[in-house]
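I am still getting used to backbone structure tokens and would like to learn alongside you. Label the sequence line and the structure token line clearly, so we can match residues to local backbone shapes. Go ahead whenever you are ready, and we will take it from there:
>
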Amino acid sequence: MKFLCLGYLEPEKMDARPKDEIDAVMNECRPHLDNFYKSGQVIMDAGLAPETKGLQRANGKVKVMDGPFIESKEMIGSAFLIEARDMEEAIRIASLHPAVQLDSGEQFGWGIEIRPIRYFKEKDYPNG
């Protein structure tokens, strides 16, 4: 089973810190990322830029909107895809990620959301 994991942060807390302090924290991530990848269950891991766009159909046309779209103090800063037997194993694997391993991440509101992925197949659509 595949799980989408979203890493989030509180950008105003990170933006308030000097660049050299942020760089030092990011350098602490490497050993934790190495352990995370060594699990063999990480399919993809990516950092996300803060720029967001949304698409929505309205009045028969696709409308492009600027984000963010959800009112929240957190921002999604990364996404990774893992393979696991169940949610319990997904939690174990995701807990290796630096977002929850680094003590210094707490000051920036780092965290991870884990969601099982459900696939849409042709048989799910009677007219498809």
Q: What stands out?
A: The chain has a mean pLDDT of 89.
